[in-house]
Amino acid sequence: MRRTRLRFATRFAAARAPATALLGLVLGAGVPSPAPADQVRLTSGDVLEGEIAADDPEAVVVRTTYGTMRIERNRVAAVLRSPRRPSPSSSRPAPTQHETQPRPTETKPLDDRASTLAARAVAEEDEGLPQELRERVAKLAARLAGPLTAGARAQLRDDLESLPAVACSLVARLSREAREPATVAVLREAADTLRFRLDAARARPELGGDDPRARANGLRALAAEADPHVVPYLLRTLAVDPAREAKQECLRSLARIGDVRAAPALVRALRADEVRLVGEASAAITSWASNAARPELLEALLRAWEGAPSPRSAVLLEALVTIERPVVAEAFLRCVSAPEAEVRAAAFGGLARVGTASAADACARGLGDPAPSVRAAAATALGRAGRPEEAAPRLIEALRDPDPAVIRAAHMALQASTGERFAPEADVWTRWWRTRPGK
């Protein structure tokens, strides 16, 4: 006969003496050598151990380490009372109708829903917590026998996040037994996050469906509820969901929420292979990086742009030019001397959007770059960043460039800076420049 998973602990706890109390809670035993307990054998073959509180033709009420449970009589195969414990009727008057109902659990659980889940998981075979899961949590509990370093707590947090959502009750119980405040905080946060995942899966079945768009819509609705535990949920979904639509919605929702915990994930997304994900992450970061209190995000965005291939670099550039901060222009100026022509062209493209008068000299030097694409970008940037009286002569000279793209860029820059509409011929512009009024 298979035994309920509440019995597993006694063997494991005996081998882990330093963490006996913690392991006992996870696996169903409070002490290494538990006192004899009453047994309720279910028709499913499981056996519950605890104290029989009531036994009548309708139901059996048993107090377990998970709280008080009321089991319908049609699910009970047999009730066995411990020989060392008198039955309730022999030591006190027959229970009243009120006493036969389930009493509130004597513990103070971190969240009631988690304790209710644990009780149901033991009593209902179709929702039973697998023994493998209990063993996983027990191994985590063994780490809590002594103080944890910051690195060990970080690893514990990662391991807890990898647990299935139904483990929320087990983790909640660990949090009530741990003594180190920092570790307790990690356990409580993990229990709440697992509980949120469980509730979300039940409230929004589309989150577990096969349709990526339906999952994205479910994520959007979930994020709109502004629950503080939605951020870890979105971060986990961003990491494990393979669908681009779901990942995009995670990034959009994280951007709207603005929680600092999302910063590392957003920075990682800047190097994603999918360009649309890069765009969502960079848009989120630029909205945060506009705040001077988050300079590291801007630096991360700049580093990602400097080493990004096309077309990812173009997407990142579009995000960077929306940030009107001197550090952005300085980064562009650094990159005009990069060994890659693609990076130099992107840098001049950035200066064309955010460059100042101090960038005009660099743009003028760019007109002599060996790469036509760089010369064209430099001409555009010079027309926007330089003063007309200084930029015009150099742009007129650029009209003699052998590359049509450079001539076109220089011509458009001259028209924009001077307001004149001459043909793209260097001699025509030279004559006008020498005879222009008010020179």
A few lines on this structure:
The protein is an alpha+beta fold and 439 residues long.
Mean pLDDT level: 75
Estimate the global geometry from the Cα principal axes. rod-shaped
Strand content: 5-15%
The CATH architecture designation of the largest domain is Alpha Horseshoe
Number of strands: 5
How many separate domains? 3
The succession of helices and strands, N to C, reads HHEEEEEHHHHHHHHHHHHHHHHHHHH
Largest sheet: 5 strands, antiparallel
CATH superfamily of the largest domain, by name, is Leucine-rich Repeat Variant
User: What would you call the structural class?
Assistant: alpha+beta
CATH topology of the largest domain: Leucine-rich Repeat Variant
What can you see in these coordinates?
This protein has 439 residues and is of the alpha+beta class. The chain folds into three domains: 110-203, no CATH class; 207-323, Leucine-rich Repeat Variant (Alpha Horseshoe); 339-439. It has 22 helices and five strands. It has helices at 9-15, 20-27, 88-91, 112-123, 131-142, 150-161, 168-177, 181-203, 212-223, 230-240, 244-257, 263-269, 275-289, 295-306, 312-320, 326-335, 341-354, 360-366, 372-385, 388-398, 404-418, 426-435, and strands spanning 38-42, 47-55, 59-64, 67-72, 76-80. It has a five-stranded antiparallel β-sheet. A hairpin with a 2-residue loop joins strand 3 and strand 4 (67-72). Helix 17 (341-354) runs parallel beside helix 19 (372-385). The longest helix has 23 residues, at 181-203. The chain is rod-shaped and about 115 Å long. The model is unreliable at 1-34 and 85-127 (pLDDT under 50).
